[in-house]
Amino acid sequence: MKLHEYQAKEIFARYGLPIQNGTVIERPEQIAGLSLRYPVVVKAQVLVGGRGKAGGIKLAAAPAEAEERARGILGMDIKGERVTRVLVAEAVDIETEYYLAFVTDRRTGHVVAIASAEGGVEIETIAQTDPEKIARAEIEPFLGFRVFQARALGRRLFLSGALLDEFVKIATTLYRLYWTEDADLAEINPLARVGGHLLCVDAKLVLDDNATYRHPNLPVNEEMTELEAEAKKHGLSYVELDGDIAVIGNGAGLVMSTLDLLAHFGGRAANFLDIGGGASAESMQTALGIVQRKPGVRAVFINIFGGITRCDDVARGIVDNPPKVPASIRLTGTNEVEGQRILKDAGIAAGMDPDEGARVAVQLAKAASGQRGGR
Amino acid sequence: MAIIVGAKTRLLVQGITGYQGAFHTKLMLEAGTKVVAGVTPGKGGERVHGVPVFDTVDEAVRQTGANACCIFVPARFAGEAALEAIASHLNPVVIITEGMPVHDAIEVLAYARQHHVRLLGPNGPGVTTPGLCRVGIMPTQLFRPGPVGLVSRSGTLTYEVVWGLTRAGLGQSTAVGLGGDPIVGTSFVEALELFNRDPDTHAIVLLGEIGGSAEEEAARYIAREVKKPVVAYIAGRTAPVGKRMGHAGAVISGTEGTADHKIKALEAAGARVAELPSGVAELVKTRLS
Question: Which residues share a beta bridge with B149?
Fold first, then answer.
């Protein structure tokens, strides 16, 4: 789960990381009541990147100007995301910009610290143009991020004296936050030198969705659409696409290959829902409800290969909530004989071959669109 | 011979008294697996499908000589269960559990490496050596013993392709499920190393997905070391860029980790890449003849 800057900074503040004074607001009129030192910077709170370029960050010298800026930014559309909140923070004179982050490295299975003297810009760009300007430190899980590593990184940013000490404190604290809060990414960009001190001018946190049970006070995940959120509530994962065939499958790999299958036969998925491992009759029932609610769905393709999921459970779920649009069902694997029998008894046709199932689904969708077109 | 599990595997099942644990213990026994012990804290003394249950792994190992472990316990306890298995030097440790916190997986993986224990998963289907041993949840009836080694990030995709191989008369030496989480115990390269050394494996099937760089690393290893024929399939060719495709963490951004990038790397390394899962068996047949 990706957090907004203001949410990340609330957590930063709890750990004692240095941030600017600032308040998040939803209505421009709230600015008058804030006790902030001017000038301030008004920042759109969105989860997508590149908000500065999109005009979502503005300076303001006085309350009236700040209110006007906030009015302009609130309600803006930044890469498809509507701005509903702005962070109003005391502006600072940045002398130098650095970059610091902790991230989980899938390749090695370790956490890695990344730092650069070239902050303020996209780190991916620097990684491509000037890889030598990026310093990395691998972290042994049982040792954690150590002071010597923080000092070495700080020196790679050419910091010395009191500033190096500040960097070491910030880096070790950020690691402690990263580990304690179950983050996948904790990033400060820029980590700025302001008046001879280091300050976290921006803050980015991505938290592990699997670990939310350890953090009961987390904010609500705003990244998801309504249907995605509902699916998640039921332990299912749902993704919206732009075709006309709703897809239900089990396991991310199979679901992705199902999209490829539909494309191969000339069809396009409207969405997909992964019922995951060990799905019950109830989750299949819920899944059918969710995928068909998207407007423009003309057919459903259910592609299930039972492993830990049992075909009889899946079949019961389908029978309890039969598809309202034409459906192609492919059901095989664990307890397939029983699953096929349950569907047959309910008068629902199902096959065992994935290519055939996909071909039929594409046909059904095309037939349905033809019908509609003819009326 | 095969790899990772076989006739010598004496399996301990953690979470054996749960719904999934009990169900799959029965299926593993039917597949010929020597399931010698189960562990569920607080349920010591019970039996599940005739298998004795203990409160701790230590106790179970002392009394039954178990040497491998399969974990079905819920996500929030799975990390602790895996550490317990590693501490008793069970090898391999196979985590079926889905939804384990990533930081728990980081610790488990580091501990497994320290103890030279092969870790599979989390969030994987396990490993099957047909005719001898099934550890995990792969449906037994799909498999036949034979010369094809298979390694995959995804469970259900594995079943799909194994079933295609079996119907084409191509049996399997071992099928290895790596798991779909961001951090898993074994990489494609490590599985390829094992298959490359295994005299029972004459061809290798690699099933990848979009996201990450594991398939590209596998391609580099194949080019360098693998003399056996390799056939691959990459799921997600038509997946939209930037969308998170299910819980597997298969996210693609930019060109790195796209299906095209992976397919090109594998083909350049001499592997044949099937367009659909159903095309894998045919390519294996051609390369074996």
Answer: B204
User: Quick one: A65 and A112 in the same domain?
Assistant: no
Beta-carbon contacts of residue A116 (< 8 Å; ≥ 6 apart): A98, A99, A123, A126, A133, A134, A135, A157
Query: Is residue B8 within 8 Å of residue B67, measured between CB atoms?
Result: yes
CATH assignment, B10-120: 3.40.50.720
Contacts of B249 in chain A (CB under 8 A): 106
In this structure, are residues A254 and A371 in contact, taking their beta carbons and an 8 Å threshold? no
Give the closest of B20, B99, B250 to A256, CB-based.
B250
Partner residue opposite B98 with nearest CB, options A179, A277, A306:
A277
Q: Domain residue spans in chain B?
A: 10-120, 143-288
3-state secondary structure B7-70: CCCEEEEECCCCHHHHHHHHHHHHCCCEEEEEECCCCCCCEECCEEEECCHHHHHHHHCCCEEE
Q: Is B180 within 8 Å of chain A by CB?
A: yes
Helix ranges, chain B (H): 19-30, 57-64, 75-87, 102-114, 155-167, 188-197, 214-225, 259-268, 280-288
**Of A140, A263, A305, Cβ closest to residue B238:** A263
B74 and A CB contact within 8 Å: no
Going residue by residue through chain A, which has 375 residues, state the pLDDT in tens, using 9 for 90 and above. 899 999 999 999 999 999 999 999 999 999 999 999 999 999 999 998 889 999 999 999 999 999 999 999 999 999 888 999 999 999 999 999 999 999 998 888 999 999 999 887 777 777 778 888 899 999 999 999 999 999 999 999 999 999 999 999 999 999 999 999 999 999 999 999 999 999 999 999 999 989 999 998 887 766 677 888 888 888 788 888 889 999 999 988 899 999 999 999 999 999 999 987 777 888 899 999 999 999 999 999 999 998 778 899 999 999 999 999 999 999 998 899 999 999 999 999 999 999 999 999 999 999 988 765 444
Neighboring chain B residues of A334 at a CB cutoff of 8 Å: 27, 137, 139
What percentage of chain A's residues is helix, strand, coil (to nearest 5)? 40, 25, 35
What amino acid occupies position A273? L
A312: containing domain:
226-369
**Considering only residues 61 to 100 of chain A, which have any Cβ-Cβ distance to chain B shorter than 8 Å?**
none
B24–chain A Cβ distance below 8 A for any pair: yes
Among left, alpha and beta (phi > 0; psi -120 to 50; other), residue B36 is alpha
| CB spacing of B154 vs A308 below 8 angstroms | no
**Cα–Cα distance, B248 to B227 (Å, whole number):** 31
Contacts of A209 (CB under 8 A, 6+ apart): A1, A221
B247 catalytic? Reply is: yes
Looking at A81, A187, A228, A336, which residue is catalytic? A187
Residue in the block written with tokens 């190393």 = B193
Angle between helices A336-345 and A311-320 (to 10 degrees): 20
Distance between CA A309 and CA A324 in Å, rounded? 24
pTM score of the predicted model:
0.91
- Determine, yes or no, domain membership for A320: yes
Q: Alpha-carbon torsion A84, A88, A91, A94, what sign? A: negative
- ipTM for the assembly: 0.90
Domain B143-288 listed as CATH 3.40.250.10: no
Give the span between the Cα atoms of B115 and A287, in whole angstroms.
Answer: 42
Provide the terminal-to-terminal Cα distance of chain B, rounded to the nearest Å. Answer: 22
Nearest CA in chain B to A141: B107
